[in-house]
Amino acid sequence: MLLRIKSLINSDNNVAYIMAAIFFISILTRFLLLDIRAIHHDESLHGYYSWAFSRGNGFVHNPLMHGPLIFHLNAFLFFIFGDSNYILRVVPAIFGCILTLLPFLFIKFIGNKAAIFSSIIILFSPIILYYSRFARNDVIIATVSLLLVYSLFSYLYSSKKNNYLLIFSIFLSLGFCIKETHYITVFFIGTFSLVCSNFNILIKTKSKIIIRERFSDIFVLIFTLTIPLASPLIGIIGNIFNINMIPGVTNSTRAGYPSDNISLLISYLSIFLTFIISFTVGIYWFKKKWIVLFSGFWIVFILFFSSLGFNPNGIFTGIWQSLGYWLAQQDVARGSQPWYYFFVVILTYEFFLLFICISSIIFLRNKIRLFEFFLISWFLTNMLVYGIASEKMPWLVVNIVLPLFIYSGITISEILKNIAKMNFKYYLKYLFILSVIIFSSILFFNINSLSTLIISFIVAWFLILFSLIRIKNFKLNKSLIINFQKVAFSLVIFILAIFSLKTSIDASFYKSGIPDEIIVYTQTSPHVHNLVKDINNFKEINDGVLLAIDTSGGYQWPWAWYFRDFDVVYFDSTNQKTFKDRDFFKYDYVIINSGNFLKFNSKVSSSDLYENINQAPFRMWFPENYRFSSFQEFLNYAGNINNLNYLIRHVAFKDFKGEIGTVDMTIIRKNNDSFD
Questions:
Q1: Contact between 321 and 257 (Cβ < 8 Å)
Q2: Hey, is 254 helix, strand or coil?
Q3: What is the pLDDT of residue 92?
């Protein structure tokens, strides 16, 4: 891969300069003010267990927190640079920078301009930028997924096929070490390879037979390497016969892990059987080279899931519980989002991508190639599978729209390259005519808001695009219509790009800690961030601090990360014995779930030691007023012009109706006299 980038730099200096500029901007946007936002619940889990790992306490794989790779990388950075909120978010920031450059690896398949456009779109994508500054696995798995696709197509069209098969095997394994969504990507690539290995219609090249054979290689390789990881599917059959091989989340503290010795034995036998099948088919198909591919895959897998050999049982949990836990939690439906949830998120943040994709249907319907078909199929598969899956969270959109970043770059390149052929004075003429149309629309609609202006602009564009060519008796030069379309398209691209950039800045910087953004999901309140600063200052002034923190309702997180080096006592305020036996007056700070504060309010207020009692939001979430009970209710809502205006304003300015939801905390602090 590095050699590929080096050869690219040597062959085209202009592309190299653009790459350098994009990479520099990506560093600024990913690393600047990385610690300004309060640590999210999920981030604190990644941070705390990585910190414990860096302190020599080991790491045990838990599918609740997904794959082990991020914990190993975090622990390494903590060991070298120390643990902090900033360092906690460095790993996704690094992968976010790498992700912006990956389109340049595909120049052989998409061309220079398409790679540049794709890279720029990724650079300023609201979804990608936000989660590049978020200590989760999503941008990491997106990066590895694109590398996996690169190795796939490099193998299909390269003479050095064995090298790329090994690279493919390594990235295939690495994805499972990151996040379970990799199963969906692998399923798609395997299915696509199977289809292409049997049908000629999708492959339009002179080496059609060779490409089909290599697709067959990819399918067999995926099948033989990953079939042991699919063994938990046998657990579904076992559950039918009351053999609890993948117990549910509500029925077991180890969801997806065999519940008894019989289930555990059957699980081991299932894994052993799949390995036998893997060896048999692999050796038959690939001969001796399969051993190398097998070794590359499983060395990576075992290395990370066993925590560098210190947790051997992690190999079993990685094989069985990774998929088993995901299957088990489908009954939970975490988030309880409607089926159209991802459409809402994509429309709100990646409207630029949607417009490009719609435009590609209009302009490029007869020019699709194998690689473009792969990207479209990948996106549609993602929408289908993630839509069916019970858990719907905003960070999953990273995986869903990933193929569209490359496809949009291709589309923009194909459409805009014809604009350069236009005479500049004619371009200005069409621009003037288009401006007149837009201005007329403003007068006609009596526009008094920018949202309505945007609506009229889009209406004007579609008027140009469709209406003129459908008037049979209206004689108009065909080239005029085409040029009108090109000019209008370029203008809309420019305007939508500006709004997309604004959306990125707002979500990642200006409003990063305030959940009036859908992607800011159940965010830790900024008040927590400020409280931590106050407690740190108190600790420095008084040479220590005693803390008591309520754990009810998941309150332990993110406190466990923030106060990892503090003397903290955790208690459950829902336990009546807590109030009877514990002396709260010795603590400098007591932080309680506000919903349970009244249970011992009288006890605390009876002492003059505590005069400083405050309440503040602990967690905050977006007002989910996009939910509809039926499709008819949605149609009724969309039919109201005022609602349409609101939707446009929400997309453009994140102006929304409804109040932000909160769960509050009560902070009890000793008065200043007690500190003397």
A1: yes
A2: coil
A3: 96
